[in-house]
């Protein structure tokens, strides 16, 4: 593999970017104790300090570009691992590539949309508007971009995870089979189970669990790249 050291360094940047995304989602989506969900409305939004939403926007804006540095190397590693004449490998490699790029675009859009909803709700809560009017206004905002939000999320999480698991099961990636669980789709499922416990600290942790899945996936990808043979340098002709 050419530029192996650079690829591993970029994957480290990507993992750091995923950590920033985790912190961003925790700041904007960890609602704390006694929160009540009403559709997409969270009752504790007005109690959350504004600096949490502001910091979340800054961190996600920094985290996504850094994550993309590692994601590009992950895409490259998958391309190098596929068998050229295997049609299934080609389709899965394309799915992985597309899903990762959709995630890079979509997660910034998704997180910014939810943060905007929270900020508008918080600001309107301090006005003379009735509670029902505030809820209908904020939910109306969400329905304007609900379709791309869900489409981006499903394609990004499911597409990247399914293709990643395929390459592990087909022994295209040089990692242990245990790494099949190191993906955002599995982490999302675990997060939903955490929320069912009704324990607020587990629900708060679950808010950041999808980027944690990408962090684990990058760590598995980095392990795979580390085992790839470095490209041999050609000797200069005498």
Protein model, in words:
- This protein has helices at 4-29, 50-81, 87-125, 131-144, 146-169, 184-196, 200-206, 209-227; strands at 37-38, 41-42.
- The protein has 238 residues and is mainly α.
- A two-stranded antiparallel sheet has the order 1-2.
- A hairpin with a 2-residue loop joins strand 1 (37-38) and strand 2 (41-42).
- The longest helix has 39 residues, at 87-125.
- The protein is elongated, with a radius of gyration of 20 Å.
- The model has no long low-confidence stretch (mean pLDDT 87).
What are the defining features of this structure?
single chain; about 240 residues; mainly alpha; 8 helices; 2 strands; about 0% strand; elongated
The helix fraction, in percent, is over 70%
The largest pleated sheet is described as: 2 strands, antiparallel
Note the total helix count: 8
Sheet-strand content, in percent, reads: under 5%
Would you list the SSEs in sequence order as H and E? HEEHHHHHHH
User: How much is the radius of gyration in Å?
Assistant: 20 Å
Per DSSP E runs of 2 or more residues, the count of β-strands stands at 2
């Amino acid at each position: 593999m050419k530029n192996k050291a650079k690829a591993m360094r970029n994957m480290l940047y990507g993992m750091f970017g995923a950590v920033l995304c985790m912190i961003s989602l925790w700041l904007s989506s960890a609602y704390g104790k006694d929160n009540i969900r009403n559709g997409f409305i969270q009752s504790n939004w007005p109690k959350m300090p504004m600096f949490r939403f502001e910091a979340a926007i800054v961190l996600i804006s920094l985290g996504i570009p850094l994550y993309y540095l590692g994601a590009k190397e992950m895409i490259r590693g998958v391309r190098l691992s596929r068998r050229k004449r295997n049609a299934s490998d080609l389709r899965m490699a394309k799915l992985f590539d597309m899903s990762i790029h959709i995630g890079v675009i979509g997660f910034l859009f998704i997180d910014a949309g939810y943060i905007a909803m929270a900020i508008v709700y918080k600001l309107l809560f301090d006005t003379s508007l009735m509670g029902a009017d505030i809820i209908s206004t904020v939910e109306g905002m969400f329905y304007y971009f609900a379709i791309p939000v869900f489409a981006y999320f499903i394609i990004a999480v499911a597409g990247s995870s399914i293709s990643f698991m395929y390459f592990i099961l087909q022994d295209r990636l040089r990692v242990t089979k245990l790494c099949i669980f190191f993906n955002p789709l599995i982490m999302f499922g675990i997060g939903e189970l955490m929320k069912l416990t009704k324990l607020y600290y587990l629900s708060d942790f679950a808010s950041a669990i999808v980027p944690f899945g990408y962090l684990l996936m990058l760590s598995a990808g980095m392990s795979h790249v580390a085992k790839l043979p470095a490209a041999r340098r050609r000797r200069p002709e005498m």
